[in-house]
Specification:
This protein has one helix and 88 strands. By secondary structure, the chain is mostly beta strands. The chain folds into 13 domains: 80 residues, Immunoglobulins (Immunoglobulin-like, Sandwich); 76 residues, Immunoglobulin-like (Sandwich), CATH 2.60.40.10; 81 residues, Immunoglobulin-like (Sandwich), CATH 2.60.40.10; 81 residues, Immunoglobulin-like; 76 residues, Sandwich (Immunoglobulin-like), CATH 2.60.40.10; 82 residues, Immunoglobulin-like, CATH 2.60.40; 82 residues, Immunoglobulin-like; 70 residues, Immunoglobulin-like (Sandwich), CATH 2.60.40; and more. The strands form 25 sheets. The chain has a five-stranded mixed β-sheet, with no helix packed on it. It has a five-stranded mixed β-sheet with strand order 80-86-85-82-83, with no helix packed on it. A hairpin with a 4-residue loop joins strand 27 and strand 28.
């Protein structure tokens, strides 16, 4: 990196790098010397007066590599030598009433060479500290000036406006009373005289804080866990980064602790509520507010007593609220559940109450919450009691009794329920049954039971002795039937219950005879064939079978539907499944019946389908499986109508002559049933496929395929194109069958067109197509800046095809008119606008094949440029040249070059330059941005002559007397300030238009270096100096004789010359 050094100061290199070297050495283009480290990466260079006169030197680093590569490598930096030490400063923020810290910008200033600093803060205050802190008393804009002097005695000055912002006014308050455990509301009332407040930092004094950022709400809530006094602070920051704080003591009063208990919480009773609240820090509770959670009770829902009573109107949970308030106004609230219990629900059930039978009493668990009951008390109405939960009791006499149950629950609530019961006389059970009683046949049972007058039988329970039972209710016939599965002796029992719930039981034995077992076999047949039935019944250990009754389940057969033969035959009237029943009877009257399903097989269903039949094409014949169940077919016979046959299930057949044919299919199913069907067939001729191909056959061009196909009958319904490269397409009528296709690569392809007509017949044709390789378009370019022509280089390739013969360029720059296009192979184009442009190149070869490519070129805007100057428009005064950062984005700038118009230049961004001769100079600033775009601006700078400073005095004078100083200076402008320095540590400044001539009294003799510094209206400064001699004054003294009035007195001079020369006068 390049650098700047002050004349008289040394410069140490800190940015040099090198690697893989054997040795290093430094050299200079000037006459200065390396005082240390000339063979390292960090040498120290001391520039000479000649270096300063030349303005800059090149410091060159030479590195000799390691290894066999011995060619030295060099690089250099430019070191600018100036007599004005570069200086700059900065601040971080500035607020009125707060110290503003000033910092030396060490990226500009070499602080190691600076020996003195002089700050002028623009408010009458100064400092000589390198980096002072200054307190501005009021907001406003101050011109702050920093003057420095380096080790060589050279000076420089920089001035900047410093905006001092007013600090915000912090203010807040809070709501009272503020109680512990309750949120305290803090409200911000801060204002910002300038800008707006962007940050509120709250510190609540209890270890908690929060920060609110604009645009958030600065008003906050905070809850203190404990009472006490807390120092709360609010620090606000304005948008100018100025801060201020407000501090306030916040008193937090302790809140009481609310608590209560209750008793006697049964429905219908008064519930007692007892305040158990506690006061905190000795602050008495003075108020109680109760809400019982029953809004429907109106004013009765509330109380302000300390210990109220309340009768709750509903059963269940009630949210009771107690709020207590102490004498400081702080309150606390508790919400607790008061559960009002209902009298325990209670009921009981009991079994039938019959004389001399235990009655079971059972608590109704649906109604009664058994788990909550602690005590049970039963009174049976006959003087007997019990404390069991579910007791039994036997009554000694019939009649009515009142039974009571009293319960007590765990909450102390009780309830009683009573039921009146009647103890009844029992009924008498009796039954009989019909003969014969055969196994597997229903046995008829008859009820002969009775019940006391005034009652009815409500249930008959039959137990048949074989594990089966039946229950009959009054709306049904109590006489029942039962089927015994086997022969034997069974005990049948009847249990009756009357309307009073009383029971009676009777049992009888029954002998069940064995029944015959009916069965038969039959032959299977197709429709219209006889079926043979054969009796296969058995006596089953009983009497022999003596009769047979058949029902064939075929009512359409009329009288033939039944038979009494032992082994009959029957011809069914239709195909299908028929349920045939046989009823047999033995000599004891026991019967049995059986049914079998007889399948009469129908003729097999038959049909077939014919695919589109075209001449010279295999015709497909297919059994219609939606009609014919092929799994049941044993054989097929096809007759094609041309004398040819087939036994295949789905044959194919080719006809020699077109025309009409009758095709017959005969099938035989697995049951041996036969059926057949015939269909007519009409044979059609094939369509003719034909197509043409376009001449252009480049791999990037679309190839046109034209259909010329025809058909004798019907019309073409489909064109199937196969281009031979794995791509195909199908066109259907009535769409245009002509298509185009682009082959992606060169080669020979076989294209196929298959056409299908409305008769379903198809045909195809093929052609071989040779695809030529097309050229590959490509080009290169360099992005340029506006007003610079962009050069385009064609990089296209023939790609094995013909020679490229044409180039068409479209630069994507329509504002350039006809210049937007070119047919040159390697054109140039001057773009009219900045930004991205899509450039299109189209190329042609001698075969007519084309290719295109588009690339984007970016045209960069020329960088904005301007500069200003600071000070130094006078001869021998340093002028600083500064790039205008309002217009120029420095982050885009890669390099700068200043031409000062006097043969000297600089590549610093803010250089200082001192002119040797007065006059007008053309200053040119040239900048290059990171896009490589260059711009320049030239301005005039007038360098004025220094004023001719002269003055005289009436010295030498005597000490203690006035010395007159008269200005004799002249200048091309007018003088605005005279700074007189008298050499005795005192000075005076005269500003225009006051009289610049002054007087001064030297208190003692001696030689003094008097100096006059003149400042002109264009800030040019010059100095004149003179030696002022002040001689010592004689010491006056005398003596006198005593004299009388009207007599002369004698005076004697005793004065001393005091090294001031002979005394000349006595006055």
């Amino acid at each position: 990196l390049n650098a700047t050094v002050d004349i008289g100061a040394s410069f140490t290199v800190s940015t040099a790098t090198a690697s893989n070297y054997a040795s290093l050495s430094w050299s200079t283009s000037g006459s200065g010397s390396f005082t240390a480290g000339a063979t390292t990466l960090t040498p120290t260079y001391l520039p000479s007066a000649t270096d300063f006169a030349n303005g800059s030197v090149h410091l060159t680093l030479t590195a000799v590599p390691n290894g066999v590569c011995s060619t030295p490598v060099t690089d250099y930096m430019i070191l600018t030598v100036t007599d004005h030490p570069p200086v700059d400063f900065y601040i971080q923020s500035s607020c009125a009433g707060v110290g503003t810290n000033f910092f030396i910008d060490q990226t500009v200033t070499n602080i190691s060479t600076i020996v003195s600093y002089a700050w002028d803060f623009g408010d009458g205050s100064t400092s000589t500290i390198p980096e002072p802190s200054h307190l501005f008393g009021a907001a406003g804009t101050y011109n702050v000036t920093l003057s420095v002097r380096d080790t060589g005695g050279y000076t420089n000055i920089v001035m900047k406006p410093v905006v001092v912002n007013p600090i915000p006014v912090a203010n807040f308050n809070y709501d009272q009373p503020s109680c512990s455990d309750l949120a305290t509301q803090f409200r911000d009332f801060s204002v910002a005289p300038s800008g707006y407040i962007v940050e509120w930092a709250w510190d609540f004094g209890d270890g908690n804080d929060t920060i609110i950022y604009f645009p958030g709400n600065p008003n906050v809530l905070h809850t203190y866990a404990n009472s006490g006094t807390y120092e709360v602070s609010l620090i606000v920051k304005s948008s100018d980064s100025c801060v201020n704080a407000a501090i306030m003591d916040v008193d937090i009063t302790a809140s009481p602790i609310a608590s209560f208990s209750y008793s006697n919480a049964c429905f219908g009773a008064l519930t007692n509520l007892t305040d158990n609240s506690s006061m905190v820090n000795g602050i008495a509770i003075v108020a109680w507010s109760w809400a019982f959670g029953e809004l429907s009770t109106g004013v009765n829902n509330y109380s302000t007593q300390q210990n109220p009573v309340h009768q709750f109107q509903t059963i269940g949970n009630h949210l009771v609220t107690l709020t207590v308030t102490n004498s400081q106004g702080c309150s606390n609230t508790i919400i607790d559940t008061v559960t009002i219990s209902s009298p325990p629900a209670v009921d009981f059930d009991y079994a039938a109450t019959c004389l001399n039978t235990p009655v079971q009493f059972t608590v109704d668990s649906v109604t009664t919450a058994i788990a909550t009951i602690s005590n049970w008390l039963w009174d049976f109405g006959d003087g007997i009691t019990a404390t069991d939960q579910n007791p039994e009791h036997t009554y000694a006499a019939s009649g009515n009794y009142t039974v009571s149950l009293t319960v007590l629950n765990l909450t102390g609530c009780s309830n009683t329920v009573s039921h009146t019961i009647e103890v009844y006389v029992a009924p008498v059970a009796n039954f009989d049954f019909d003969a014969p009683t055969c196994s597997d046949h229903l046995v008829q049972f008859h009820n002969y039971s009775n019940t006391p007058l005034g009652t009815t039988i409500v249930e008959w329970k039959w137990y048949f002795g074989d594990g089966d039972s039946a229950i009959v209710v009054p709306q049904n016939n109590p006489d029942v039937t039962h089927l015994y599965d086997s022969a034997g002796i069974f005990t049948t029992t009847l249990v009756i219950t009357n309307s009073n719930g009383c029971e009676s039981t009777i049992s009888k034995d029954i002998n069940i005879l064995p029944s015959p077992l009916a069965d038969f076999t039959f032959t299977e047949a197709c429709l219209n064939e006889l079926t043979q039935f054969t009796d296969a019944s058995l006596a089953n250990g009983g009497a022999s079978v003596v009769s047979w009754n058949w029902n064939f389940g075929d009512p359409a057969a009329a009288l033939d539907n039944t038979s009494t033969l032992q082994n009959p035959t029957h011809q069914f009237s239709a195909s299908g499944i028929f349920t045939v029943q046989l009823l047999i009877e033995n000599s004891q009257g026991c019967t049995d019946t059986i049914s079998h399903d007889v399948v009469v097989t129908p003729l097999p269903a038959v049909d077939f389908e014919i695919a589109q039949a075209c001449l010279d094409t295999l015709v497909e014949f297919t059994v219609n499986t939606t009609v014919t169940t092929v799994s049941e077919i044993a054989s097929y016979l096809w007759e094609f109508g041309d004398g040819q046959t087939s036994n295949e299930q789905n044959p194919v057949h080719m006809y020699d002559v077109d025309g009409n044919y009758t095709v017959t299919l005969t099938i035989t199913d697995t049951a041996g049933c036969v059926n057949s069907v015939s269909h007519d067939l009409s044979l059609s001729a094939l369509p003719q496929s034909l197509f043409g191909v376009s001449e252009s056959q480049c791999n990037t061009d679309p190839i046109q395929f034209t259909n010329f196909s025809t058909t004798e009958t019907g019309y073409i319904t489909e064109w199937q194109w196969d281009f031979g490269d794995g791509i195909d397409t199908t066109i259907t009528f009535p769409n245009n069958p002509n298509v185009s296709h682009v082959y992606s690569s060169e080669g020979t392809y076989t294209a196929t067109l298959t056409v299908l007509n409305s008769n379903g017949c198809s045909n195809l044709s093929t052609q071989e197509i040779t695809i030529l390789p097309g050229p590959i378009a490509n080009f290169d370019f360099e992005s340029v800046c506006l007003d610079v022509s962009a050069k385009f280089t064609d990089l296209s390739q023939a790609n094995g095809g013909g020679i490229i013969t044409g180039w068409n360029w479209d630069f994507g720059d329509p504002t350039s008119g006809i210049n937007n296009f070119s047919t040159l192979q390697n054109p140039s184009h001057l773009f009219k606008t900045v930004g991205d442009h899509d450039v299109l190149l189209t190329i042609y070869n001698e075969k007519g094949c084309i290719d295109t490519i588009t690339k984007t070129i970016n045209i960069s805007m020329l960088p904005d440029i301007d500069f200003t100057t600071i000070g130094g428009t006078c001869l021998e005064g340093a002028t600083q040249f500064i790039i205008d950062t309002i217009l120029v984005d420095l982050s885009r700038i890669q390099s700068v070059l200043w031409n000062f118009g006097d043969g000297l230049s600089s590549n610093l961004r803010a250089p200082y330059h001192t002119y040797a001769v007065a006059g007008t100079y053309q200053i040119t600033l040239t900048i290059i941005d990171f896009n490589g775009c260059t711009n320049a601006v030239t301005k005039e700078v007038y360098i004025d002559q220094l004023p001719d400073v002269k003055f005289d005095t009436d010295a030498p004078n005597c000490e203690g007397s006035e010395t007159q100083f008269n200005d004799l200076s002249s200048t091309s402008n007018f003088i605005v300030k005279w700074h007189w320095e008298f050499g005795d540590g005192t000075d005076t400044i005269v500003n225009w238009p006051n009289n610049q001539n002054v007087t001064h009294i030297y208190p003692s003799s001696g030689s003094y270096q008097a100096k006059l510094t003149i400042t002109t209206s264009d800030s040019c400064v010059n100095i004149a100096e003179k030696i002022i001699t002040i001689i010592p004054a004689p010491v006056a003294n005398f003596a006198a004789t005593t004299a009388c009035i009207n007599h002369p007195a004698e005076f004697t001079d005793l004065s001393q010359e005091n090294n001031a020369g002979a005394i000349a006068d006595w006055l």
